[in-house]
Amino acid sequence: MSWLPLSFGAPMVLFGLLALPVIWWLLRFTPPRPQTELFPPLKILARVLKREETPRQSPWWLTLLRLLMAALVIMALADPVLNPREETPARGAGLALVIDNGWASAPDWDKRVATARRLIADAGTSDIPVILAFTAEKPNADIGPFDANAALDRLRATMPRPIPTDRQAIYARVGEALAAMPGAGIAVLSDGLEAPGDEPAFAALLARSAASLIWAAPEHIAPIAVTATENEVDGFSLTAIRAPGNAAPARLTAGAFDDKGRRIADAVLAFGAGEDTATATMTVPFELRNDFASVALDGERHAGAVRVLDESSRRRRVGLISQSEADQAQPLLSPLYYIRRALSPFADLIEPSNPDLAEAIPQILDQKPAMIIMSDVGAMPEQARTRLADWVQGGGTLVRFAGPRLANAGNDDLLPVRLRGGERNFGGALSWTTPQPVTEFPASGPFADLTPPREVTVSRQVLAEPSADIVDRTWVSLADGTPLVTGAKRGKGSIVLFHIAPTATWSNLPISGSFVEMLQRVVLLSRNQGSIETPADATPAALAPYRMIAADGALVPPSPEARPLTPGSGAAVTMENPPGLYGSEAGVLAHNLLSSESRMQPIARPQAQVPVTEIAYAFDESSLLKGPFIAAALVLMALDTLAVLWMGGILGRRRKGRNTAATTAAASMLLAASLSVLLVQNASAQDAKPDDAASIEAISTTRLAYVITGTSGVDAVSRAGLQGLTRFLVEKTSMEPGEPTGVDIAKDELAFYPLIYWPIDPASPMPDEDAIARIDAYMRQGGTVLFDTRDQYSSGFGEGSASPATQRLRDILGNLNIPPLEPVPADHVLTKSFYMVPEFPGRFNGSPMWVEASLDASNDDDRPVRTGDGVSPILITANDLAGAWAIDAGGAPLFPTVPPDPMQRVYALRGGVNIMMYMLTGNYKSDQVHVPILLERLGQ
C-alpha cells in the first residue's frame, strides 16, 4: 500500500486515524474533574454562593495541537517511507545472485552494489538462502549458499577486478549449485558487455528449473577504452573504442605519462555521432615519445582506459649507409629501397648527405642512432672504422648486408664471423643444383618465434668460415646448413650480418613479409637500455609482476595473487596475470587488457522460459520517516506541556485551571512514555553492544587481530600471516594465542587486542573520522597498531616517498596523535625481547621498523637495552610481514621472499615473536638487569 512519493510499511495502523474525531470529542467536550477540598462547613457554604469558574471545555488550539500529535504518532507506527523503492522479492526456494565484477563494472560499482544489496535484503526478508557469485573471481571461490547477513558481508568485501569476466566457468558453477536448490530464483547483474561463450554460459545457468529471472544491465554502456597505440613516423597514435549505438558525439582528452607519472603530452579523441572508434595523434618529437610509459583517458576510471608501454613501443633512430649510388630511374634496384620500406613504419631513418664513408659514418654517428645498417660496404677508412667500433662497444647495433664490395673486402672485426673470399654463386664451382630454401629458425636466436618463410630461396651469398662457435652465431640458416644471418655481441652492442644483398638479385627474401619482421626484431634488439637478457640455451624466463593496472585505472604494486608472466606465451589477462608491467627496473614487458581487435558489444538478454523482471541499477533513495515523525510528535508534546503549565499558572500568568493542568500533565506523561518505548524500539538495533559473555570470551584468550580492509586478497593474506605467526608462537614459546581475528575499526571493540596489524591498501576506502578517533583512543589507552605499507620496492616511509600505500598511510597518520618516530635502535627492547634480532624483515627486506622515539633515553654501561617505560603505540614497516608469515592449510609458506633467502622467513617470524613479547611485557628485559643487585641487597 503506497501513495507516491510516500508509502507505509504497516498501512493497517493508519486506520487509527479514524479515532481522531473521538479523541477530539473527548478533549473538547469532557470537562475536567472538579477540585475537591476539605474545609470547615462555613467556608464551604460561603463558596457555594460564588459562580463556578471551572472551564467547561479545552481551548480549540490546544485540542488541535493534541490531535496533530496523535496523528503523528499513528503515522510513525505505520512505518512511513519517503520515495519508496519497488521491491523485487526473490521467488522460490532461494536466490542465485550472479554479479559481473570485471573491468567494465568499475565506473559505477557502488551503484551495482546498492542494487545487489536491495536484492539480498529482500531475500533476507523472505528468509531464503542466497547463492552469491562474481564472474571475475576464481572459479573455485565459495559461492554459498549464505544467509542474508553473510551474503552482505561478502558483497562488501568484493571489489571490481581489472580483468574480463569469465561467465562460462562461473555460470556453470552456479548451475551446479542450483541443482541442490530446486525452484530458486536467479538474478543476473551484468556489466552490459558481451563476452565470448555467453550463449552456452546462459544455457548452463538456466538449465535448472528456476522460479524467476531478474535481469539488470546498464541503460547506457559508458566506458571508453584504449585498444591500440603506435609510435609512428610523424607522431604517437592511439585508438579508442566505445560501445556501438551511441548516437551523441563525444570528445575526451588522452594523456601520455612517463615512468614518474608526469604528464608530457595530450591528444583529443573525437567520436562522431554513431561512431564507435576514434583515433588521435600526439605530434611530439620522437625523443619525447620514447619517454612514454603509459597512456590514459581523462575521466575514465577503469582499467580499459589505461595502456602501459614497454620498449617495443619506442621508435628507434636508424642510420642507413650505402656506397652504391641510387638509380632514380630504377628505384627497385637501389640497395636501400627495401630496407627503407621495411623500417619506415616503426623507425626514424637518417642518411648521410655524402656517400663518402670518411664523412658519412661520422655524420651518422653524430646523430646518435640506435642502429646503423650498411648495405654492401667494404673497406672503411681507419678513423671512421675506429669510431664505428667504439660506438658498437658502447651499445650500438650494426647490421651489414653482403654484396660484391663486402665479398672482396676481406675480414675485419666489424663482422660477426670470418668470411671466405669471393661469393657463392649459382652455376659456379660451389654452386647448388637448385636455389636453397630457408630452414627452421634456431631456438636460441632472436627469430625463434617467427614463422620461417617457406617461399624464400637464396641463389647467391657470401660464405662464413667454419668455426667452433659458428652454430651459436647463426640466426638463420639454409637447408644445406650454410648461415644466412649471423650475429655476435661486441661489448654492450651487437653486429649482425645478412649474407645476401638487400635487393631481390641474390634472394627473394627482401621482397617477403619475413624481411620486415626480421628487421623489426633486430631493431628491438638495438635497445641500449631496458633489454631483458635471455640465455641462448634456455627458454625465456618468467617475468615477475612489477606494476599492475588496478580496476580504477591506477598503477599499483602487484597483489599477492599476481603470478609471473612468460614472455611470448600469449597469456591472456587473468587474475593470475592481470594487466600491467612485468619485469623489473632493468626492463619491463607490457601486458595490456585490450588488443587492437577488441570491441565492446552490448549484451543481449537471454531467452528464458520463466518470468523475467528487468530492473535498473540505482541507489536506494528511500528515506525512513518514522524517526522524523516521532521527533515532531515530541516537539508538539513539549509545546503542549508548556501550554498546560501556562494555563495552570505555574509560569506566572494565572493559577486557574489547576485540575485541567494536572489532567493534561498526566496525559502528556502517558504519551511521553509511549513515545519513549517507540524510540527505544527504533534504536535498539543500532545501540546493540556485545553482551557480557562475548566480552569474557574475547578477553579470556590472547588473540592477534588484523584490520579488515574490504579487499579480499589483502584480508586473506593478513589472516594467513597471523595464523602462521600464531603457530610459530605456540611452537617456540609458552604462549598459546587463539585464532586470529579480523576487526572492523568502525564497529568492533578494539580494547580486547594488545596488537592490531593494519595492512595499508590504497584501494580500500579511507577510514572516516569516527573510525580514526576510535584508533586514536585505542592507542592512547595502551594498544599498539602495526602499520604495514607492503611497498618496500616502491618507496620507503621517508618524505621522498610517493607510492599510493605510503600516501594513504600519511593521510591516516595525519588525523592521529602520533608521537615522534625513529627506526628501531640497536639497543631497543624490541631487538632482545625474546630473540636477538638486528632487523625486522618480512616478505621484503630493507625497510626499517619505525617505533616511538626515545627522545630522553640514555644508556648506562650495565643496561643492555634502551631505557623507558611503556610500549610504543605505533609500529611502521614496508616489508610485508604478513606475506612472510602466511602459511596454507598444510603449514607451507604461501609466498616467496624477496630476495629468495630461506632464513629471511625465519628472521621475519622471530621478529614477530619479539613484537608480541614486547607488546605483552614492555621493557621487562631492561628491568631484569637489576635483579642481581636486588638479590644481593636482600642477602640471597
From TrEMBL:
The answer on whether this UniProt entry bears the keyword Transmembrane helix reads yes
Task: Identify the residues that the record assigns to the Aerotolerance regulator N-terminal domain, covering every copy.
Answer: 6-80
Superkingdom per UniProt: Bacteria
Coiled coil regions in record: none
| Residue ranges of the TM segments | 6-27, 60-78, 629-648, 660-680
Listed A to Z, the keywords are:
Membrane, Transmembrane, Transmembrane helix
- Pfam (any one): DUF4159
List each copy of the DUF4159 domain by range. Answer: 703-920
- The answer to whether UniProt assigns keyword Cell division to this entry is no
Q: PANTHER family, from UniProt?
A: BLL2463 PROTEIN
Q: What is this protein called?
A: RNA-binding protein
